[in-house]
Amino acid sequence: MGVEIERKFLVAGTGWKQGAGRSLSQGYLSQTDGVTVRVRIDETRGFLTIKGPTLGIRRAEFEYEIPVADAQDLLQLCRPQRIEKRRYEVMHEGQRWEIDEFLGENLGLVVAEIELPAEDTPISRPEWLGPEVSDDPRYRNSNLVTCPYKNWVTTKPTTSHP
Fold this sequence. Notes:
Layout: E1 3-11, E2 22-32, E3 35-42, E4 45-51, E5 58-66, H1 68-77, E6 83-92, E7 95-102, E8 110-115, E9 129-132, H2 141-146
Antiparallel strand pairs: 1-5, 1-8, 1-9, 2-3, 2-6, 3-4, 4-5, 6-7, 7-8
């Protein structure tokens, strides 16, 4: 079984921003009982991803590359809301961080994620890394579709954006 072990953090400052990043567009075909079925276009590649319920920072994940034309058609079957973002990859002390700078309904939100081989893998914290939000379901992309960042009623954490 495919497993994703991921920690998620808010981002402070702009020291992380390197290069132009790449555009991602994604939608959700299904969200039931913690299981999500996502379709994503990453520049010129399409993906279909099934993720299981989150248990701590671990969950089942199965991802398959599909023709981009199929991904475009599948996006039309998704809810009207989509996640639009720019993704940057930053290496820090041998670890690869993915920083998502959200656009559209989630503009102003910047989140860093790191995938780990084990839950107890130590991480080296870059200077731009803010508070951890791995346990906060609001920051899951599947939840940002239904409750975008711009609509949050509570005080929004400080994040950086251009």
